[in-house]
Specification:
Chain lengths: 277, 296, 478
């Protein structure tokens, strides 16, 4: 009886999650096999498996969407934005969580509200702002916006994580005479590795995929990013879906790599932390 | 609470400088444009020439339009349903991840995040053929379990379509909140669990009485991110239904886009944007109030 | 001078593109020197030096290029920016555009064109932003519904003054090509295509199987045919209205012209007394709601491509869509279905004034010229617009599967795809009427009309409510 109960509990825990996991793999699998179909096959049925594998979809998609140049630009934007976001949001998150000062809740409230405003409400005013600053069509058109856009999420994540860390270490350090920046970067930052990894994953993903701002602020071919390249498969009356999917598959790879790499960092943190089972 | 005292005025000045520099920058990039939008919302402007001041007439026109109330209702509905769904399911999974019973943990952790990195167009495509009436997987499933009487035109039926589009959105971001909550759990000191185990706490109880209070802040941040994300929901709805049938699945973000870019009515578009901002302030205030108080 | 290096790079890219298209293959490593020998010297000096020493090599290159230009008959110089949605390797309209554009640039190496591409789905968003930021390019594309905004703000200059000054150019367009770019009695734009927004595409094999003899001539016949097709287990008419425009713009619009006429619509659009709530229009809405029972039931959740899929898979016997679908059929339709596919005009409704020839059709998008463009740049721009809308472009357009706004005087119609040839013959008989969403302000044309039509065919809105809704929005926008 007890054994049956345990089996049932195991079943209850494992099966729904397994089901969820399988549904999560499905889009990846679909993307991969659809991207090697011909357009005719795809048009007849978007679900069926391909008759023959057309890897040249990838070759065509790569050149048509200017992948070489665009991937470089996307990488450039992502990495610079990421570094800036990491430093700024860590400092801001740390100070907001550790110290109580006048205006703290205003900073909090503004960050939170600005996060809920749709991008499309900001596009035109930001375009005009960038034009006045002479920032349009420039290697640095997008980075300032991406940094600001990603700031609230990262600050909230770091802030909430640091709240859970005891102040003992820092107090000990400051008794030893360590300055505030030193305490922040040499004592707290290493402890925050799991959440900083989460910030890396999220920021990289958002910046890598960002479309609306790149679309309006960049007109020059040599400055465009990957998401803009993904529109190169649509002409006035038709879309070449298989090429688009091949390009999407290629565009997703860097994000998955970043995820799998930094997710391991999160897991290391978890192993060092709590979960024994 | 883990708070530190500000030691002296010099440190205070340093803290203010470090907070204000990025904050002013943020205000300049993200908030200042919104303030310009407030000005636009009081004008009639086609996007070219000089805006003509019209007072509050955009707002009165907006509030009188039944479409506006419909899309506001849709957005708030999605905001609540998706927040509860995403964070709730993610929380359950994050707890399950701490159980020895659960097999294949590494696999699950890696895979549940996959949808998060998928482009909305792919998610839209996949779910549209899950719902498809011809070759849809959902209908095939219902037929297989003998409930073909439950079959609907999932995305055509005005009465259920909003609920139907919320499912893919919830599904896609479970992984994201799972990661955040798990990194919160990782911060809990091992000793806490060991003490609890000595006291005889197991599985479920451990989760509710020990883990949950310890990750309260992570949970709060998940709710903030999630509410923020669904308030501006756009891509998913475009990919799934394009707001239809009629405006049954249109969100405020789509409504704002429509007026600004498709109709070239900048004044009205800005009025909608300002309304979204006001709603956002209310919601973030509410979250602060509810979640903040409980902890203290 | 600031944009020189950019233009240079573009010029080189385009030279490479030309070389590639001339070679007829897609090897990206082929150097630009593969193009005509006459240009080799000029290209050699510019290509390697372009990035570092633009200015000097520019002058050097210019003189060399000028000579080779003379040899090929060009001689224009100037520069302008050109904002477009013609994807390099896309559908027919794009191919024909690039064929003509590359030819022009080859003949006129001193004309620097800064091409700015945005795909057609996102084009309007970017255009609106550029407009609001006062950063409009020299030439851009616009639908008729935005024309008054540009014209009233003096942002554009009328194209007709230049076109009528050149008799060869003026005579090169088909009748009615300028209908969509006329505002306040002035023809502002330069049209490049002439599409019927509605044509019936049907599978003759399924028709015969259901005992139907050819395409129906009247609406009653169509309804009877639909009944037979439905009885045989097929979807009579495929409809993919997820993106909201298809039912309204590509089907209902033309259906409405069976009840109302161009004069009524002009009066409606110009506040001349006609109303959406007029009895004839409400009758059209009612009739359209009736035909919806022959659509597939998921009409509002599948998109145009899924609608085509129903047809490819022989689940649906016919569909109504814009003429662009003819090109799509030729490219993607399985051979057995394509061979029994034919096209027909939307039948007339008995007892109503409209004929089967009345079809919503037109140029849709037009090239507009910024009012700031003048001098050599303007001359070069006009020559370019002429080259990419008329003459050889028009002939090429037919081979690429669409009808251009220019007269295809020298086209070899014998080599056309049979299905396209069928459409081409039908198109000649059509009585072109205004496309609603190209003329009416967007809040009605692509706002209320789209959303309400979706509800109309879903049966969740009555024709009377829809008419009233449209009328009240229209009145708010006069």
């Amino acid at each position: 009886m007890d054994k049956a109960k345990r089996y049932f509990a195991n079943f209850l825990v494992n099966v729904p999650i397994l089901f969820l996991s399988l549904t999560c793999i499905f889009p990846v699998v679909w993307l991969l096999y659809s991207s090697v179909k011909t357009d005719a096959e795809f048009n007849i049925s978007p679900v069926n498996l391909p008759g023959k594998i057309h890897l040249d979809n990838y070759v065509k998609a790569f050149s048509r969407a200017n992948f070489g140049t665009f991937a470089f630009n996307s990488l450039f934007n992502s990495i610079i934005s990421l570094l800036l976001v990491l430093v700024v949001s860590f400092v801001l998150g740390y100070l907001l969580s550790r110290y109580r000062f006048r205006g703290r809740s205003i900073v909090y409230g503004v960050l939170m509200a600005a996060m809920m405003v749709p991008i499309y409400a900001l596009i035109v005013p930001i375009f005009i702002q960038e034009k006045k600053l002479g920032l349009l069509n420039n290697y640095f058109s997008l980075i300032p916006i991406y940094v600001a856009m990603e700031l609230p999420t990262s600050v909230f994540l770091i802030d909430s994580y640091i709240k859970g860390i005891s102040v003992d270490l820092e107090d000990a350090a400051s008794i030893d005479g360590a300055s505030l920046p030193r305490t922040m970067f040499t004592i707290i930052m290493p402890i925050c590795r799991p959440i900083l990894s989460t910030v890396v994953i999220l920021t990289f993903m958002h910046v890598w995929n960002e479309f609306p701002f790149a679309q309006v602020l960049i007109s020059k071919e040599e400055l465009k990013t990957i998401p803009l390249g993904l529109t190169y498969f649509t002409s006035q009356y038709s879309t070449s879906y298989t090429l688009l999917l091949a390009a999407l598959a290629m565009a997703t790879i860097p994000v998955l790599i970043i995820y799998l790499f930094f997710y391991n960092k999160i897991m290391e943190g978890m192993m060092a932390g709590a979960v024994k089972g | 609470m883990n708070i530190r005292e500000i030691r002296n005025n010099k440190q205070k000045a340093g803290i203010y400088a470090l907070v204000l520099i990025p904050f002013i920058y943020f205000v300049y990039v993200m908030v200042y444009p919104l303030i310009i939008s407030i000005y636009y919302s009081l004008t009639k402007w086609k996007g070219i020439g000089n805006p003509k001041f019209v007072g509050l007439s955009n707002y009165t026109a907006m509030l009188q339009s039944s479409d506006f109330w419909l899309v506001t209702k849709n957005t708030l509905f999605l905001c609540v349903v998706c927040t509860v769904g995403q964070v709730g399911i993610a929380l359950v999974i994050a707890f399950l991840m701490t159980l020895r019973r659960l097999k294949l943990k590494t696999f699950h952790r890696a895979v549940i995040f996959f949808p998060v990195v998928m482009a909305p167009i792919v998610v839209g495509y996949v779910w549209r053929f899950i719902y498809n009436s011809n070759y849809g997987l959902l209908n095939a499933f219902l037929t297989a379990i003998g409930r073909s009487d439950w079959i609907r035109f999932w995305l055509d039926d005005q009465d259920i379509v909003l609920r139907m589009v919320s499912v893919p959105v919830i599904w896609q971001y479970i992984g994201l909140y799972m990661i955040i909550l798990m990194s919160g759990i990782s911060a809990i000191p091992q000793e806490v669990f060991e003490c609890a185990e000595i006291d005889g706490a197991t599985g479920f109880k451990k989760s509710i009485y020990i883990t949950l209070p310890m990750i309260w802040d992570s949970l709060k941040v998940c709710i903030i991110l999630c509410a923020g994300g669904t308030m501006k929901i756009y891509d998913h709805l475009v990919a799934l239904t394009n707001g239809g049938p009629g405006r049954a699945t249109e969100s405020l973000a789509m409504y704002c886009y429509e007026y600004t870019f498709r109709f070239g009515n900048f004044g009205m578009g800005a009025a909608i944007a300002v309304t979204i901002l006001v709603l956002a302030l209310l919601i973030s205030g509410a979250i602060q109030l509810v979640m903040g108080r409980r902890k203290d | 001078m600031k944009v020189k290096s950019m233009k240079k790079t573009l010029a080189i890219m385009l030279a490479a593109a030309t070389a590639l298209s001339a070679a007829g293959c897609g090897d990206a490593s082929t150097p630009a020197t593969d193009s005509e020998p006459a240009q080799d010297t000029a290209e050699d000096t510019t290509t390697p030096a372009a990035d570092t020493a633009e200015t000097e090599s520019d002058t050097a290159g210019d003189s060399a290029e000028a000579e080779s230009a003379d040899a090929s008959g060009g001689g224009l110089s100037g520069s302008f920016s050109f904002f477009h949605f013609h994807e390099d390797d896309g559908a027919g309209t794009s191919k024909a555009f690039w064929n003509a554009a590359n030819k022009f640039m080859e003949a006129n190496p001193d004309v620097n064109i800064e091409f700015i591409f945005t795909d057609s789905n996102n084009y309007q968003e970017k255009l609106t932003t550029l407009m609001a930021g006062d950063e409009l390019p020299d030439v851009w594309l616009s639908k008729g519904d935005m024309l008054p905004t540009f014209a009233d703000a003096d942002a554009i200059q009328p194209a007709d003054q230049y076109i009528s000054a050149d008799s060869e150019w003026a005579g090169a367009y088909v009748d009615g090509a300028f209908a969509d770019c006329t505002y306040d009695g002035t023809q502002w734009g330069v049209p490049f295509q002439m599409q019927a927004n509605c044509i019936g595409v049907y599978n003759e094999a399924i028709f015969e199987e259901c005992g139907i003899n050819g395409w129906p001539e009247t609406w009653t016949e169509l309804l009877e045919d639909c009944e037979k097709i439905k009885a045989a287990g097929y979807t009579p008419i495929a409809m993919g209205n997820k993106d909201q425009w298809l039912a309204e713009s590509a089907v209902f619009n033309t259906y409405a012209y069976k009840y109302i006429d161009q004069a009524w619509f002009d009066s409606l659009a110009n506040n001349g007394g006609a109303k959406f709530t007029d009895e004839a229009f409400v009758r059209a809405l009612t009739g359209f709601q009736d035909i919806a029972k022959y659509f597939n039931e998921d009409m509002n959740s599948i998109d145009q491509d899924e609608m085509f899929a129903l047809y490819y898979n022989k689940q649906a016997a016919m569909f109504f869509d814009g003429a662009w679908s003819v090109g799509t059929m030729i490219d993607n339709c399985p051979e057995d279905v394509l061979s029994s596919t034919h096209v027909g005009l939307m039948p007339a409704v008995e007892g109503e004034a409209g004929t089967k020839y009345d079809t919503a059709a037109g140029a849709g998008w037009n090239y507009l010229i910024s009012s700031g463009l003048e001098g050599d740049d303007l001359t070069a721009c006009l020559a370019f617009l002429k080259a990419v809308t008329t003459g050889e472009y028009a002939d090429d357009a037919l081979q690429q599967g669409f009808i251009s706004a220019g007269k295809a005087a020298n086209a070899d119609t014998s080599t056309l795809n049979p299905l396209f040839a069928e459409y081409y013959e039908l198109a000649a008989t059509m009585n072109n009427c205004s496309i609603f969403d190209c003329v009416l302000p967007a809040e009605i044309g692509s706002g209320v009309l789209y959303a309400d039509t979706q509800q109309l065919i879903a049966g969740t809105m009555t024709p009377e409510d829809m008419a009233a809704d449209c009328q009240s929005t229209l009145e708010a926008n006069y």
